[in-house]
Design a protein that fits this description.
Blueprint: H1 7-28, H2 34-42, H3 47-61, H4 63-71, H5 83-100, H6 104-113, H7 117-141
Length: 143
């Protein structure tokens, strides 16, 4: 199975996510976890609360337009999974973040930066699960 790992783009993306998390904490005193962000967007506490959440989601969604403006080409996205696999994966992630009390961005970026023991355990669990999943798919199932 071929991969398209891009270390420089991955580093740049991670840096931008970290910068956004720091700016959100500095500007609004809020932790940037994607799951909590979207949940609060769907059921906001106030209009001001909805506005910053909507701005962040809009910023995430317009990333391809920024790439187009910078390079003149659309980013190439290839998903090796079908619609059923994507829906099942999304449901599994939704269940996982519910039981885990947050997602990889909340725990892995913000929680670790705050030296949260709970986030360390959650992040180690995410990473171990991901490594096991890749191993099983590539070496046991052989897909």
């Amino acid at each position: 199975m071929d991969t398209t790992f891009t270390p420089l783009l991955s580093l740049a993306g991670g840096g931008l996510i970290g910068l956004a998390a720091v700016l959100l904490m500095l500007g609004l005193g809020r932790i940037m976890g994607a799951t909590g962000l979207v949940a609060g967007l769907l059921a906001p506490a106030s209009g001001r609360d909805w506005a910053w959440r909507a701005a962040l989601v809009l910023g995430m969604a317009t990333g391809p337009l920024v790439w187009l403006a910078a390079t003149g080409t659309w980013p190439q996205v290839s998903v090796a999974a079908g619609p059923v696999q994507l829906v099942l994966g999304g449901l599994a992630v939704g269940i996982g973040v519910t039981f885990g009390g947050g997602c990889t961005s909340g725990h892995g970026i913000c929680g670790l930066a705050r030296l949260s023991p709970r986030s360390l355990v959650a992040t180690l669990t995410f990473m171990a699960s991901a490594a096991l999943t890749v191993y099983v798919i590539r070496h046991v199932i052989g897909a």
